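ASSEMBLY PREDICTION REQUEST
Request ID: AP-0331
Submitted by: J.K., bench scientist
Number of chains: two
Total residues: 225
Priority: normal
Notes: Please return the full assembly, not individual chains.
Input sequences:
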Amino acid sequence: EAGVAQSPRYKIIEKRQSVAFWCNPISGHATLYWYQQILGQGPKLLIQFQNNGVVDDSQLPKDRFSAERLKGVDSTLKIQPAKLEDSAVYLCASSLDRDEQYFGPGTRLTVT
Amino acid sequence: AQSVAQPEDQVNVAEGNPLTVKCTYSVSGNPYLFWYVQYPNRGLQFLLKYITGDNLVKGSYGFEAEFNKSQTSFHLKKPSALVSDSALYFCAVRDHNTDKLIFGTGTRLQVFP
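STATUS: Completed
Returned structure:
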């Protein structure tokens, strides 16, 4: 069974630029999550999708972050414009049920 | 609000010795608790979970965790540590209302040969 795929693995941008991350969940997993993991901290949920609908985006900075999950499969997370404090690892996860989430390798973003 | 705390930033243990990584929780209602492990440059991997039932939960790679309701703890344990167990370990609780996972700050486990 293929795992959660994410790209790119690494990205370096200057502040005020825009960036997009892509996630392909495990086949058949209806729920998809995007987390932000700042160095030295645990992952923090940004947005949760159930199929192509948003379940929770309460911690998504909506003035600069956006996410979509077209057709209920792949998802993209966009930041525009980026700030220095957005430097983090962005993790995508998917789940079939409520109990176990499967994580991708993450995208390490550095904003200079 | 649901939360977990991992009081130790780092735990050092010699190979072959038992290890414990601590986690305490604060929840309203029954807790749904998880342990994940993160190896360098990789995503988090599920280790084990406590939803209900036996207080001693067995998981992947020989790890187990003990749920203690009176002490509101869910410590991760392994009888004999391996160097390959060296990684970052996260405790998490599932929010009852939204199902989202709320993670602790992580504990770095270092196993020395």
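REVIEWER COMMENTS: The CA atoms of residues 90 and 110 of chain B lie 14 Å apart.
SIGN-OFF: pending second reviewer
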